[in-house]
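ok here's Sugar ABC transporter permease:
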Amino acid sequence: MTPDASGTGNDRSSAPRAANPRKRPRRHASPTARRQRRAACLFLAPACIMVAIYVVWPILSTIRLSFYNWDGMSDASFVGLANYIELFHAPTFYTALKNNVIWLALFLLAPPMGLAIALYLNQAVAGIRLVKSLFFAPFVLSGVVVGLIYSWFYDPTFGLLALIMGHGIPVLGDPHYATPGIIFAALWPQTAYCMILYLTGLTTLNSEQIEAARMEGARGWTLLWHVILPQLRPTTFMAVVVTVIGALRSFDLISVMTGGGPFESSTVLAYYMYDQAIKYYRLGYSAAIAVVLFAIMLLYIVYHLRRLLSSEH
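and the structure:
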């Protein structure tokens, strides 16, 4: 019998070649997949157009405007980096930047306080709905209303704080107390907002993991730290990001309560930007402040986003 006939020879021409897994034939998308992709693009198109018009284009226009000197009426003149150079040499800029840091440090108390209130409200006890509505109230109030309420609260002649202390304290009239007083007022609605986020996050907890941890003897702080908080990590990220953005763009309470005073001691970057644009018609200089504020927000959010993504992996 010849080797070819026995099938045991060295001639491999008649044997089928093994398919190379790396070289797979290209498969064309089916008509159904193409229709689904086209439908997804059509549904996303209005949102993308809105974002491009109302978010991307204003950001690019503001960056471009920051290189010009413009009062809003006459022709704009190109000045290059002159607005940024003047900004970094202005004492008010560093006062506003310092106040933003103070806002950021104290405003980060809102997420843990919101979590504590959410854990308290996440109980099935009698009358808890009434208590929830009381804690929800600050969230639906506008910043102007909150500013007016706390302006009356701090009033040294007839305010509630003067009645509690027994004597008037000019909180909003003292450069040392004005910024902490405004931040204390702003924490009221911000804590309510974080509480709502955590109440929503608590409804998505895995009850099986919690029951298993309790069977293992986990209670109190141990259960919260090792079981509940890891599941609330996305909610915590959202609460921190929203709180940071709120601290950096704080404007309404400052405008209502102090107007940046006394002696510009309570001004922040957002109010400084408004002041230069509306009062002094320096739109290019105001745009430079906006670009710096946007860069600070972007760096902080990207940093926390990278930390969240790295922790997920």
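+1. Confidence is low (pLDDT under 50) at residues 1-16.
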